[in-house]
Each structure stands twice: as C-alpha cells, then as structure tokens.
Write a structure and sequence with these properties.
The protein is an alpha+beta fold. It has three domains: about 55 residues, Structural Genomics Hypothetical 15.5 Kd Protein In mrcA-pckA Intergenic Region, Chain A (Roll), CATH 3.10.290; about 80 residues, 2-Layer Sandwich (Alpha-Beta Plaits), CATH 3.30.70.580; about 80 residues, 2-Layer Sandwich (Alpha-Beta Plaits). Helices cover about 20% and strands about 25% of the residues. Strands 7, 8, 9, 10, 13, 14, 15, 16 and 17 form a nine-stranded mixed sheet that branches. Strands 3-2-5-6 form a four-stranded antiparallel sheet, with no helix packed on it. A two-stranded antiparallel ribbon has the order 1-4. It is elongated, with a radius of gyration of 21 Å.
Length: about 250
C-alpha cells in the first residue's frame, strides 16, 4: 500500500481528452473521436470516454506512445500564431485535403486552426499547438468580435447595411445576432460579428440579393491583421495572448 504522505504532492488525474490535448497531439474533440474509435490505450487497456490519466500512465494512440512535451524554463509550452490565410487554403487538419492549412504553414510542431475561414475567404486566422484551449476560445458565450472587409457585386446601400446589422436571419437553423456594419467604399462594407456560422456573411448578403466577391478578416478581438502579408505568419505577443486566452491558461 502506498504511503499516504507520498500522495500529498501527487498531481491530480486528468480526463484523457484533456491530457491528449495538452500534449499538442490534437484538440479535445479530436481526442474524443480517437477514443470512440478505440484507437487509444492507457496502460495497455483500450480507453473509454471519461478515462482518467494519472502521472506515470502510458498512453498510446494507434500503438504509438504519446510523448509529453518537455518545456525549457522561460519558454512557452505551446505555439500560438497568426496567419494571413490566402484564398484557396482549406482550414482543416486532414492531410488528405490538398491545400490544407497545416501543410501550408509547415510548422515544426503539430498545430491546428482555432475556428475557420472559408476556402474562398482570406485574412486573419489563429493556429495553436494547444488543443486544450481551442474549444474555450470558440465558446459561443465568449462572443469574440471578428471584423471583416467585404466587397460585393453592386453598390452598398444604407438599407442593406441596416438589414445586415439588424440580425434575425435564419442560417443553418440558427438566427443571426445583431452586429455592426459600415460602408467601406461604393462596393464594400466593414462588418463586426460575434458569431461564427459557416459562410455567415455570404449567406446574409445573399438574402438581400448581394454576392460577395472578396472577404478578408482583419481582426479577432484584440488581434489585428495589420501589415502581415498574405501567406505569412507570426507568433502572438504576450499582450495579445492575455487578451485572448481565458485567465490562468498555461501558455
């Protein structure tokens, strides 16, 4: 029997999906999928949803041991980058998809996007090796602001802008929330959303008879695209991370 005193400083057990995500292998959601497909074992036993992992346990995925990343003192545990995504790049981690965003960035660590931008859209998107924070950042109740510049096929009117900003349109079975929309040239507008429905701006505009010709995301909360050139990426600063991540998140 273990000495009770030796257990005082033992780290608490973690849910398996959290443990996998913290290694940077994949997000929690992806980890749950791997577990459901019986591709994960803990100490030689096939794991189940909700399995707890303690220090010293051996976790394997498809037979390969999952390694916990060693962090040097003073170094960040995870990667957080901002990419100016070009048109034609798909926001998926699936290696079978030509032009997937992970291969495009080509980072030495395993990373995945936080949210998405349509293949035919461009601009700011965040990627990280910290799968544990992806769902936290994307939670609906957080309502992160996302700002876009949009070019359309006919002159932008005040009536159109009021309609876009009003909300209440049905898209994918959900109603759009009120937002802010401003004219940006004769054929363009700027819009600030707190939702992230698939192809939301394009579908909203279509309900008023407009077709989106170009869509660029220029801001996510306190993070701005700035002078970052298309196809280039940069590491987020400490100040940007403090404004983006939930409190007490380990970087």
């Amino acid at each position: 029997m273990a000495d009770p005193d030796s257990l005082i400083d033992a780290p608490p057990a973690k849910r398996l999906n959290k443990y996998i995500a913290e290694t940077g292998f994949c997000s929690r959601r992806e980890a749950d999928r791997l577990v459901a497909e019986r591709r994960v074992t803990v100490n030689g036993e096939v794991a189940g949803i909700g399995t707890q992992v303690e220090e010293g346990d051996e976790v394997r995925i498809d037979g390969d041991v999952l390694r916990v990343r060693k962090v040097k003192p003073g170094k960040r545990r995870h990667v957080y980058i901002a990419l100016n995504k070009p048109v034609g790049i798909t926001c998926t981690t699936e290696e079978s998809v030509k032009g997937n965003i992970v291969d495009f960035v080509g980072h030495e660590q395993r990373i995945f996007p936080i949210g998405r931008l349509d293949k035919d859209s461009e601009g700011l998107i965040l990627l990280t090796s910290n799968g544990d924070i992806v769902n936290q950042v994307l939670r609906k109740e957080n309502r992160h602001e996302k700002e876009y510049l949009v070019a359309v096929n006919k002159p932008v009117t005040e009536e159109f802008l009021r309609g876009m900003a009003r909300g209440g349109m049905w898209i994918h079975g959900q109603q759009t929330l009120p937002c802010r929309a401003y004219k940006h040239g004769p054929y363009g507008f700027r819009i600030v959303l707190t939702q992230g429905l698939n192809r939301q701006i394009r579908l909203m505009a279509a309900q008023f008879g407009y077709r989106v010709k170009q869509l660029r995301r220029i801001r996510i909360d306190n993070l701005k695209l700035g002078e970052l050139k298309p196809g280039r990426w940069r590491n987020l600063t400490d100040a940007e991370l403090r404004g983006l991540l939930p409190e007490q998140t380990e970087w």
